[in-house]
Amino acid sequence: MEYTSNSDKITRDYFDSLLLEARYIDSELPSTKLELYGKTFDTPIMTAALSHLGNTAENGMIIYAQAAAKANAVHWVGMGEDKELEDICATGAATIKIIKPHADNKEVFRKIDHAVKAGSFAVGMDIDHAFNGSGGYDEVLGLPMKSKSFEELKDFVQASPLPFIVKGVLSAKDAEKCLKAGVKGIQLSHHHGIMPYSVPPLMMLQEILAVTGKEIPIFIDCGIESGIDAYKCLALGAKAVSVGRHLMPLLKNGPEATAKRIKEMNGELAAIMARTGVKDLNNFDPSVIHQRSW
Hints:
Radius of gyration: 18 Å
Order of helices and strands: HEEEEHEHEHEEEHEHEHEHEHE
Distance between the termini: 10 Å
């Protein structure tokens, strides 16, 4: 692997180091149906929690949600105005609203309440946006952020009637705290390399599963560009994956083009499942993965 501080490149290199063995005998056409929080989706390939897509495409955030709805995929959304979330949920996309770690907890509770009223599918917090790169607390669009304690996290979980998910977990220690706080899902993410030399999210999956077991679903974010990348995550124990930057250039072509790529990726996933003897999302075998040593 080339020596670099670029977390995105490190993540890409890690994905590419994982090789697959074929298992054809007794294989059959697979199902990619995902069961999550009481709903059924056509694919475990979800969108990622993006924000402010107006510079990518006019009405980019709405197009993004429409694409997820057309692909019958789970949709994640990040920072935005209340009205925007309402419009996103109105598209019919099953939307997970991710809230920033605002310094003012009253704003966090308000956003949880609004996400529920807007019709969100689940809600959560983006814990890795608490600090800036200069040793202080972060500020996003003029809004101050602050790290959250275990007790604060428990309060957020208890305030939400929807499943509460923590995004930005990259350690077994944080995963254990999330589990004890009562969260209903964890997304492993380095937020597009927000910290140099971040460990690839998928690399941490086994350590985190050793803590969480099957008690809550684990999702993988960052650097996923194909159904084959998704397969590697699922084979190693992830429940589903999020794709964001790979889809962004397609938004200018409308929701149909973006949904088409999600469906294509799902087809790529299904093809590898068929070729490795995996009949559905509950029957992955991690021993099919081999790490390249040359």
